Amino acid sequence: MTLPELAHPNAAPPLDDTRDDRRMLRVAAAVVRDLSTPRASVYWPDLLISTGVGYTALAGAISFDTVSLALASGLVAILALYRAASFIHELSHLRKGALPGFRFAWNALIGIPLMIPSFLYEGVHTQHHARTRYGTAEDPEYLSLALMKPWSLPLFVMSAALAPLALIVRFGVLTPMGVAIPPLRKIVQERCSALSINPAYRRSAPHGAFRRQWQLQEACACLWALMLAASVVMIGTRPLLTYLAVHSGLTVLNQLRTLVAHLWENDGEVMSVTEQYLDSVNVPPPNWLAPIWAPLGLRYHALHHLLPSLPYHSLGTAHRRIMAQIVEPSAYRKANHSGMLPLIARIARGTASER
Fold it and tell me: pTM higher than 0.85, yes or no?
């Protein structure tokens, strides 16, 4: 692994070496040479178990008449399906052919049933890692939240609760309308076809094999959205309402994780690799809640920005190795934080100072 890969597999070297902790970058590249291969023996059982537990619990939430059992099942469904859904992040970084069949299986089991097919993220998330895009107006996954008004934080989190309804409209209404109305199709492709948080982001048209993949996934998601709407007539409202509640729960949880994945303190300037790292967040052990709200290694989000090609099961080992090798002064430890609540408080203090 070479130093340019620390920012992005195809990134240029840092623009200004004086702004980078060069020793940290060298150590990070050196200690993970044996950790870069995704292990099918980890990915497949994790996905299948999480999916199985999630759908079993969802069925329980729908069928249990006892409120406490239904709520408990709903909570389990939220956590398990949230973990399974988080594999979309891994898909955006997996090299072609690394895990044969995994992308198809994830879309069939999770992407289509939750109306988040992988085309919504693939080709989008990698732009967030691009060396000269991170934290700028061209970054689809960045907002300067810490520099915005105080009301922006609760709005950012709670708006996610409406995502399931928005996805039904996106695929069940806008997709078929776009087939009949080409100008609408272009608007939907540019503005409603990416899991992004930057409202100014506009997505480019897909090409080649990815275009065909996009079209197939979108067609399947459209059929699923229409089936969900029709289910009210066929089997009543409870299954759909429970599905929407669980979907909203996992989406809000993911939005909370997104809120504390970065410090959101950049004002649009191009940042060095180290500056991008310090604007990102690790929540390492001993925090025991982090694997729940930041599954699949997402608790090491700052480390992920240094080493985006590392599979999720290698991030904990990589973190321990780097911590053992790094001595002060170093930027590495400065991205380690104690938990979600202190991070939310820090970001909220930033918004308060912007009044």
Answer: yes
